[in-house]
Amino acid sequence: GFVLSIDLPGFEREDIDLTWEEGVLNMAAERVDEDRGRKRTYHRRFRFPKDVDTDAISATYTNGVLEVTLPIQESIELRGEQIPIEG
Question: In CATH, what number is assigned to the domain containing residue 49?
């Protein structure tokens, strides 16, 4: 599988939006700095092979680091269902 680590210091977990669409992980983070009146934004797109197990993607955000785990589907699923050949 894949593990993606992104440093996002100064952002809160609620500021981060992760979506998966057709082999692309979209990450957007947006935070308004109340003290300075500025808005910080961060957007990235990461392309992965189609064999990522989309039902098993997980993410954590700890100490300013977003870590996304993208497991690969089992190889049997990549081949589909086995079809017996009769002779």
Answer: 2.60.40.790
pTM of the model: 0.77
Q: Which domain holds residue 27?
A: 2-74
Inside any domain, residue 23: yes
Is 86 within the bounds of a domain? no
Q: Is the pLDDT of residue 77 over 60?
A: no
Predicted confidence at residue 76, as pLDDT, reads 45
Q: What is the pLDDT of residue 41?
A: 94
Question: What is the tally of structural domains in the chain?
Answer: 1
In degrees, rounded to 5, the angle at the alpha carbon of residue 43 between the alpha carbons of residues 37 and 46 is 165
Give how far Cα 2 sits from Cα of 46, 63, 79, Å. Answer: 11, 21, 20
